[in-house]
Amino acid sequence: MSVTVFIRYTLDPFKRAAFEQYAKRWLAIIPNCGGMLVGYWMPHEGTNNVAHGLISFESLAAYEAYRARLRADAEGAANFRFAEEERFILAEERTFLRPV
Questions:
Q1: Full set of structural domains in the chain with CATH
Q2: What tens digit of pLDDT does each residue of 45-78 get?
Q3: What's the half-sphere exposure (Cβ side, CA atoms, 13 Å) at 71?
Q4: CB 3.0-4.6 Å disulfide test: which of 2, 37, 58, 80 passes with 30?
Q5: Distance between CA 51 and CA 62 in Å, rounded?
Q6: CA atoms of 100 and 95, how far apart (whole Å)
Q7: Taking a C-beta distance cutoff of 8 angstroms, is the pair 40, 23 a contact?
């Protein structure tokens, strides 16, 4: 069974450009660590402080292995630090979805 992680980010609306830099970095990091990146989406019209990311995995075990590789990855660690230092993510929610 495959699983897709749906990530909902609440952003500081005045720091959307910093989040976009952060999201663009994941475009290479996530596949290198074993995730099947579906994509990241930025606010365009309407709500200006919510963004989304979707990453698929073969199973929850594959997701856990990915998380371990991500924590050990230098570029991933640097991107996490960037987010912490710049504080553009106010909240992050993860939902695990399966296909119907």
A1: 3-97 (3.30.70.100)
A2: 999 999 999 999 999 999 999 999 999 999 999 9
A3: 5
A4: 37
A5: 24
A6: 15
A7: yes
Q: Residue 1: what pLDDT? A: 72
Sign of torsion over alpha carbons 39, 45, 51, 54: negative
Q: At what angle do helices 16-32 and 74-86 cross, to 10 degrees?
A: 160
Q: Is 36 exposed, middle or buried (0-12, 13-18, 19+ CB in 10 A)?
A: middle
Residue pLDDT, tens place only, 15-42:
999 999 999 999 999 999 999 999 999 9
Kindly report the three-state secondary structure assignment for every residue of 40-98: EECCCCCCCCEEEEEEEECCHHHHHHHHHHHHHCHHHHHHHHHHHHHCCEEEEEEEEEC
